[in-house]
Amino acid sequence: MAIVDSRTPDPKRFLSGATGDWEIVVGMEVHAQVTSESKLFSGASTSFGSAPNDNVSLVDAAMPGMLPVINQQCVRQAVRTGLGLKAQINKRSVFDRKNYFYPDLPQGYQISQFAHPIVGEGVVMVSVGPDRQGNFEEVEIGIERLHLEQDAGKSMHDQHPTMSYVDLNRSGVGLMEIVSKPDLRSADEAKAYLTKLRTILRYLGTCDGNMDEGSMRADVNVSVRKPGGDFGTRCEIKNVNSIRFVGQAIESEARRQIAILEDGGQIDQETRLFDPAKGETRSMRSKEEAHDYRYFPDPDLLPLEFDDAFVEELATALPELPDDKKARLMSEAGLSAYDASILVSEKAIADYYEALAKGRDGKQAANWVINDLLGALNKAGQSIEETPVSPDQLGQVINLIKEGTISGKIAKELFEIVFAEGGEPRAIVEERGMKQVTDTGAIEAEVDKVIAANPDKVEQAREKPSLAGWFVGQVMKATGGKANPQAVNQLVREKLGID
Amino acid sequence: MTDLTELTLAEARDGLAGKEFTSSEITNAYLGAIDAANSALNAYVAIGHDKARTMAKASDEKLAKGQGGPLEGVPLGIKDLFATEGDHTQACSRILDDFHPPYESTVTANLWADGAVMLGKLNMDEFAMGSSNETSGYGPVKNPWRAEGATTDLVPGGSSGGSATAVAAGLCVAATATDTGGSIRQPAAFTGTVGIKPTYGRCSRWGVVAFASSLDQAGPVTRTVQDAAIMLKSMASLDLKDSTSADVPVPDFEAAVERGVKGLTIGIPKEYRMDGMSDEIESLWQDGIAMMKDAGAEIRDISLPHTKYALPAYYIVAPAEASSNLARYDGVRYGLRETGKDITDMYEKSRAAGFGDEVKRRIMIGTYVLSAGYYDAYYLRAQKVRTLIKRDFETAFDEGVDAILTPATPSAAFPIGDNERHVDPVAMYLNDIFTVTVNMAGLPGIAVPAGLNAQKLPLGLQLIGKPFDEETLFAAGRVIEKAAGRFTPERWW
């Protein structure tokens, strides 16, 4: 099969070496654990964190005479994911056996899909950036295929002085292997792709995307070439388990390959492992040591077939996906592409935003989420899931501004209090006397005081009306920010005699 | 009182229901016969005296109240390939030493639900790979038949040799068996018993140790056609635990037995007239044709042009699937484990010690034909042949043929340790020449005893039917049985 190069070489992405520029070419195989109650071919539970071998059926343990039966929930999840990747859904697919011996593979083969996967070609739009000007670049990354397969169990080598133990809880859990085309051209693109893919899966609810629990893992194929040249020989880096490590692995592997090529050597096609402690990849097995998996159709299973109505039903019930949501936020709420991108980047952020923006000004809500909430969370090292300020609490803060009960400045203080201490914003405003002063008499007294104390500034302001802002600022300062800024502004202008 | 071990299943069932004797009586009669004969015949690899008596007692309680299922109190032998909970279940392989499944196969569960009693587990070729029962890890089974005036021990055929011998020698009323390339029909023909391999998907494979998943199918070995119909009715079911199980109703097969063949068209495939076919087989076939004609069937010569490719294609597909199915016997979780210096060494030593030569041969063939670079030339081509074989049959049936009559085997039973078949495995594989096509096409096939040869050894004929039309096979098989009579070996053991 000929590999199509869909990208135009872009100097921004090049790595420079001793002999000139190099271009990185990356393709990824992502293993995403299907969100389902039970395993791909058995009724055993998929729950994470159970005691070893608690979630093992006779089928998972490959007892003699046991037979696999496809879990329809996993099929639906794979089709939904395919729809989310705007991919071709194959109404007929075939399960094959991939044969090899390993203690954590009880059957002696993995049931997978080889020649006829359930999902064919699709696309993922990836935002790469921002660059120094704060711009994002939209890049289209091709999906080659998605297929369903069984996960293996886990060997444990630290339980006994001379023996290894095997935990089969994960044995037979459904995985979606999502294979990209070799369309990625930098570590940043690869990280952005993986992030976007995870976002899509989480929006769909087809994989929880928790890389630290192993429910999403990436095999990264890396090669380098002179810009615009033929594809180089690739190395596959197996089982990288965080987005950050994917970036590091690609950078270091590309550097390693460039060094070899610039020394006049050649790249050996091989499987490598990334060592996060050393920040480099090392050889796992060469092409010669590669297994002959002897794929053939699993005779215990019929071809997987469904009709258009089945796909249509799933398509109709599909949730709004990040790209569509972004477009809607831009057109409906008038958000900038930048703001909309941030809000849809994680499902939990989008959910938060939409709860907050309901019945409120969308732009204002977006500013609060992006500048204040995400800023505070970032500073505290917390994720959106851990936010101490609920959409309802933040919504109250915004309502209080709109009602004129507090000023924007006080609102920021109020937010900080709620973030740090919790509590009902409205009650906090009452208790701590943070209400805005709208009593014109009190404000007028402060305005008079400032005007009297600064005759030179008064002169200047009459020449240059925009200096009125300085007076407003002084009054706000003097009132501890509680004065209604509009009232102050109006009075200052009246007293200075400017319109 | 008559010897209870000579009754057919139908007679035993009716006698039990009519309270002429109890299940405990007939069960004890069989246990006594097994204890007396097994050292000579080696049909059983495990005899469950206590379990059989407990089951019989429970049946007797039901029968006394006039209750019970269609097989209530009937003692059966079970091929060692079927998982029976807590019992010996090793597919007669040493690699499964000490394995006792915590589960019951669907087929045997169906039988117990219908009231049957289990006598024990029957000998077989290791993992059902063989045509003489000589590859068993428990030693060969002897055929209760001997050539007239001879004392040479003969094979009962395989792989269901224990099932066939036990039924023929009066060591169970009927037996379960399995057939991947002829493993029910060939032993039935060698022992003068009836064996039917039903349509693929008719009986659940769940809990049956797998040999070649796309070909394996369970069926009964019995003394009469009627008994086979009764057994199959109880064994068959739709099973959601087996994705290849067929969602078709299970008819009352017994009701079809006396239906006759009047007005049916019986096809005679010219390709089954092989070069070098012996006169005794040729004349047996002619006898069968005459029996069908006499019963009112129309005889039609037909062509199944791809027949000659069936055996070679079978010996690619079956080992390919077997090489993968048997990968789970790795010494890690159950069965035999030899100590090794690392995991690979443990695998190699365990599998070297646990598998016999024939099983190893087929694993190697299967691994080879699936290997990179050979897959297209062997496995893929064999699957194409399989499609053509299937099409041959479809064409014949589309053109009005109701069933096809062929010999069941190319010869009568041969001696244990027969030199030619041991030096050349292909000579042994040729035993399946008339039967493998049926498995490749997924069709039902029945072997019915049709006569004795010059040495007074039984010979069988095979009838091949349309998918899920076992009823026609029972009706046509009964015609042969009525014309040829029943055949019982003379007791020498």
UniProtKB/TrEMBL annotation, chain A:
Function noted in UniProt: Allows the formation of correctly charged Asn-tRNA(Asn) or Gln-tRNA(Gln) through the transamidation of misacylated Asp-tRNA(Asn) or Glu-tRNA(Gln) in organisms which lack either or both of asparaginyl-tRNA or glutaminyl-tRNA synthetases. The reaction takes place in the presence of glutamine and ATP through an activated phospho-Asp-tRNA(Asn) or phospho-Glu-tRNA(Gln).
Origin superkingdom: Bacteria
Key words of the record: ATP-binding, Ligase, Nucleotide-binding, Protein biosynthesis, Transferase
Catalytic activity: L-aspartyl-tRNA(Asn) + L-glutamine + ATP + H2O = L-asparaginyl-tRNA(Asn) + L-glutamate + ADP + phosphate + 2 H(+); L-glutamyl-tRNA(Gln) + L-glutamine + ATP + H2O = L-glutaminyl-tRNA(Gln) + L-glutamate + ADP + phosphate + H(+)
Cross-referenced SMART domains: GatB_Yqey
GO MF term (any one): transferase activity
Name of the protein this chain belongs to: Aspartyl/glutamyl-tRNA(Asn/Gln) amidotransferase subunit B
Quaternary structure and interacting proteins, as annotated: Heterotrimer of A, B and C subunits.
Gene: gatB
EC number: 6.3.5.-
GO biological process: glutaminyl-tRNAGln biosynthesis via transamidation; translation
Residue ranges of domain Asn/Gln amidotransferase in the record: 351-496
UniProtKB/TrEMBL annotation, chain B:
Oligomeric and partner information: Heterotrimer of A, B and C subunits.
The Amidase domain, residue ranges: 25-473
Family, per entry: Belongs to the amidase family. GatA subfamily.
Name of the gene: gatA
Keywords from the named record: ATP-binding, Ligase, Nucleotide-binding, Protein biosynthesis, Transferase
Name assigned to this protein: Glutamyl-tRNA(Gln) amidotransferase subunit A
A GO molecular-function annotation: glutaminyl-tRNA synthase (glutamine-hydrolyzing) activity
Pfam families registered for this protein in UniProt: Amidase
Entry's Gene Ontology BP terms: translation
Organism: Notoacmeibacter marinus
InterPro entries (UniProt xref): Amidase (IPR000120), Amidase_CS (IPR020556), Amidase_dom (IPR023631), AS_sf (IPR036928), GatA (IPR004412)
Enzyme kind, highest EC tier: ligase
